[in-house]
């Protein structure tokens, strides 16, 4: 740190007499201010307001809530069958994503890493669904998976004497929804894995091959461990995204039939904007927030710790 | 991506609390010269398609020409987005100057929160020109909070050709005859009923009508007041609906069907894929815009009576639309309501088929034979019930829609339906 010589610039004199550490603090504070203000206004304030509104019975009209009901909203929420269904649906989607979607993405990423004719074309093709907006995807699949003979999927299946009710039955709606989610997001995870795979030095896999490792052994003992950080991040993104799943469900099924595909965010929308029970909807948003936060902290503390260690040491 | 949208939804929900206190106060007791002041009227309506949309725009222009100090700013929104936008708007403590309302429970909540203007005195000259049925939804505790622009009723819109094909010679007047007709249609290989199962509200019409026919209008009124729907007659309404659903009368995949999309309920009837739908006065219009349209083959019959029920077949169920005025709106907003309630303009709306008569003496402007039937049934009605999802507080109305939708797909029993509705009503 170079000290400012007194007398260089008259205007700086006053500042120069202050201890440099305080001045540096002031500079930092000034530079941080815009971001902090925005963060407080657009992130912290709504969160705090949701916590606050969650303790009230409030239809959202005319000023701040008045009717304090304590934990009533939360008690109602935890006793509600719809909310229990939300949690079950979330559990199903998280497990299905981890068990099917991510392994599938990993497999495709490894294939795309091979020397393959038209590799760039495949990469583009697989990533394309992720670029589409959720609304477009939802409308598209509402048509493809239409439950009667008009649907493309049923028309094709019909040629083999098969058909499905897709979104129109309580028993098939969740798998159908998962199919759409997978179509939409596998490309994103594939891209992550592909990037991760390409950062693994060729020497390592080559060495393993020369040592007589079978392809499975090379994958299991070299590639997979080195992909660890990427996989852990991809799992994290997938879970958090699933907890907050909204657009696809809202447009395709609206949570139905008979709440079979409802997610927490859909229930929140339903109660906040249709039933005008903003207090109750706020309670749902708080539960969503806490769930995501607890998962994120737990995950960072126990799963991502090794990956983040480098970052903390350098600091 | 989805994270952003949910975050935005959550944020708007939460920011809802921010407004309110900081309302800019209009100077009370506005003086005469203030009329020359430049004012802007925010007009929110839901006529997203022509001719209604265009004619409303024209009226706004005409009003501006007659009142040079006024600018009318129109916001046109689709039904559901209108409701969401209104929710965020009213949460900020302000309502638009002039906005669409269906009256009932939502308007009552808005009135109680001081968001809408009491029009009883300001609009006194025009209020008596409206028919009593049309005004009913907007009168709360003896005060008028909106003026009607449209009124109608729900009934069965059916395909005469398909009915004839199945050997149903005349529209059924009793519930058992109705179930027979459904069976005959099925036997003839015709899908009897189109239903938008995804949207829930079309399903509630069945339960509401059955409740009206079995329990009667007074019992419904009483249930709303005592917040108790557990009476045996309301359970019976559900049992009758279950009996219908058990016949599997609806189109394939109705559980995921929308109302007005090209593969929805209206289109199924419009394209001759289903024989009927239970819908309001706008049905012919939506059928035409979402499919081929039935033309002369389209008929209308009122919801059948239930044998031994306390309600009459002449009791009508339905509703309309109207316009309310925001509490802080400039005085010109009420002038604007008077302007659009001019009988000549109302006739223009009727002849362009986006409204049914709400002003006494304009009934003759209806030319469409099916709509004429609606008007006849409505004017001869022995009683009137507003849509339950509008009449009741929003949470109760939505619970009716929701639990009836579950009843239809087999997710709830008739007993559970009345239990959920009662629980929600008690919690409001």
TrEMBL record, chain A:
Q: Which CDD domains match?
A: TM_PBP2
Using the UniProt record, give the first listed, main subcellular location. membrane
Q: Which Gene3D superfamilies match?
A: MetI-like (1.10.3720.10)
The ABC transmembrane type-1 domain covers which part of the protein?
87-299
Q: What residues form the membrane-spanning segments?
A: 28-55, 90-112, 124-146, 166-186, 233-252, 278-299
Which compartment or compartments is the protein found in?
Answer: Cell membrane
What keywords would UniProt list here? Answer: Cell membrane, Membrane, Transmembrane, Transmembrane helix, Transport
One cellular component (GO) term of this entry = plasma membrane
List, in alphabetical order, the GO biological process terms annotated in this UniProt record: transmembrane transport
Q: According to Swiss-Prot or TrEMBL, what is its membrane topology?
A: Multi-pass membrane protein
Please report which protein family the annotation says this sequence is part of. Answer: Belongs to the binding-protein-dependent transport system permease family.
Q: What is this protein's record name?
A: Raffinose/stachyose/melibiose transport system permease protein
TrEMBL record, chain B:
* Gene3D superfamilies, per the entry: Periplasmic binding protein-like II
Recorded hits in InterPro entries, A to Z, give: Bact_solute-bd_prot1, SBP
Q: Name one Pfam family in it.
A: SBP_bac_1
Q: Which keywords, in A-to-Z order, does the entry hold?
A: Signal
Signal peptide range: 1-21
Q: What is this protein called?
A: Raffinose/stachyose/melibiose transport system substrate-binding protein
Species, as recorded: Nonomuraea dietziae
